[in-house]
Amino acid sequence: MIGAQWGDEGKGKITDLLSRSADMVVRSQGGVNAGHTVVVQDQTFKLHLIPSGILYPDTECIIGSGTVIDPSVLLEEMQQLRDLKVSTENLFISQTAHVTMPYHRLIDKASEEKRGKHKIGTTGRGIGPTYADKSERTGIRIIDLMNTDDLRAKLAWAINYKNAILEKLYNLPPLNPETVITEYLDYAEQLRPHVVDSSLKIYKAIRQKKNILFEGAQGTLLDLDHGTYPYVTSSNPIAGGACVGSGIGPTVIDRVIGVAKAYTTRVGEGPFPTELEGPIEQLLCDRGAEFGTTTGRRRRCGWFDAVIGRYAVRINGLDCLAITKLDVLDTLPEIKVCVAYELDGKTCRHLPSSASEFARCQPMYHTLPGWEKPTSDCRSLDDLPEQALDYLRFLAEIMEVPIAIVSLGASRDQTIIVEDPIHGPKRALLDHNGSPWDAMTY
Ligand code: GDP
Ligand code: IMO
Ligand code: MG
Question: Which residue's CA lies nearest to atom 15 of ligand 2?
């Protein structure tokens, strides 16, 4: 299950929903930049690293090798769950995941400042610098934390190296190696009981024919290779990333589910063709409570972008979509969907690879009537106003992908399951139907 836009699509809610029939839930990329919200009755859980399946006591949850782990945040998150009487006994951490260190957080924030108007708008959680060290082969892995003697030497070297960067490049005070080493040795002991060979553990579950859900973090457009570079994160949130980041082969994945909001949001910098300004943007932000789960930043809001939607279908090989937050559109008299871009006087139907071209793209809209009725109590497609159904059909048609789930509120029950997203027939009621939009295809 992956995010089909720029993150915050409601993956936490959909993971929680799908976890009902999962024996294992795996996070395979990203770190504490993610913020996944799950609402269960009157309790709201905000998860950053721990898979949203943790709320089911029998579900095993894995933080896979492609993630980057900030132990201070992870341990705090584990404690918060235990305070709410949620067991963390079934939480397992990959020994080959990389560790976010204090210098990563400092460098993330300082380098953003240095970039000035070219900043990415990162979450400031040290994600980019942790992945950079992994690529540079100077990273510290969980397995290093487990070996106390080695860790001392490795950390002393790394901190000295990073202190030179902090002092000379960013004019920041150096870190005290002893303080950091003591802090991380303590984290290591607390995490030790949870550390496993996660690829092997997942493989055993596959051999036992268990249901495994891979919970994506971030979204397709934030993918390091296939997103809107350079305004992306430093991991691979696309479906292919699940294999690399958890150590499984692509042949074991049965179905790929994309999650998309009924409109679009984006946090941080970077082009966003359907971004709105004015009263409709304010309405989407207010009704959708569009403030970041991790940083509290206001999310930029705009109309649904089907060019991006089609791109997500292609890049991830989506079998079906979960459309979330349809209820947010309830009061609008009309709703727009971007069906193509105008780029330098020409119609452009595919996401351009060039950042400057993408920044020049102007949305071309198709306008649909709104339904102007509340939908959050609807529990089947028959309950939905005809215009809401038409809107969903339009999305399925233009993206050429069936819609399996419609979400109409943050709680578990505010959901319409159109088809079983895991086992169900490939054709759903909200299927595309030999689309009139085929003319614009490949
Ligand atoms: P994630 O990062 O993809 O898990 O999404 P976030 O949790 O960061 O943001 C989604 C927000 O929308 C959360 O506050 C959810 O509780 C909320 N949410 C999820 N689905 C729905 C929905 O269908 N309707 C409404 N109104 N809110 C929703
Ligand atoms: P979830 O899993 C939305 C964005 C940041 C920034 C860019 C790079 O909750 O959907 P980073 O700190 O990763 O180096 O920041 O990516 N970003 C997200 N936006 N949802 C997320 O996660 C995000 N994680 C990172 O805002 O633009
Ligand atoms: Mg989020």
Answer: 122
pTM as predicted: 0.96
Q: How many angstroms separate the alpha carbon of residue 353 from the centre of ligand 3?
A: 25
Query: How many beta carbons lie within 10 A of that of residue 435, not counting itself?
Result: 15
Q: CB of 217 closer than 6 A to ligand 2?
A: yes
Look-up: residue for tokens 């998309």? Answer: 260
**Among 97-106, 145-154, 229-238, which stretch is predicted with the lowest mean pLDDT?**
145-154
Check if 8 is active-site: yes
The atom number, within ligand 1, closest to the CA of 44 reads 16
What pLDDT, in 10s, does the model give residues 251-267? 999 999 999 999 999 99
Q: What angle do CA 15, 17, 20 make, to 5 degrees?
A: 105
Q: 359-387: buried (b, 16+ CB within 10 Å) or exposed (e) per residue?
A: eebebbbeebebbeeebeebeeeeebbeb
Do you know the residue count of the chain? 442
CA of 237 to the centre of ligand 3 (A): 13
Nearest residue (CA) to ligand 1, atom 13: 37
Q: To test ligand 2's pocket by mutation, which of 45, 228, 267, 294 has the most ligand atoms within 8 angstroms of CB? A: 267
- List the Cα angle 223/393/382 in 5-degree steps: 125
Å from CA of 104 to ligand 3 middle:
21
- What is the C-alpha to C-alpha distance for residues 293 and 321, in angstroms, rounded to an integer? 23
Q: Tell me the per-residue pLDDT of 307-333, one tens digit each, with 9 for 90 and over.
A: 999 999 999 999 999 999 999 999 999
pLDDT band of 421, cuts 50, 70, 90: confident
- Residue 124 Cα: closest atom of ligand 2: 12
3-state secondary structure of 336: strand
Q: How far is the CA of 33 from the centre of ligand 2 (A)?
A: 6
pLDDT tens for 40-99 read 999 999 999 999 999 999 999 999 999 999 999 999 999 999 999 999 999 999 999 999
Q: What do you get for the CA distance between the two ends of the chain, in Å?
A: 25
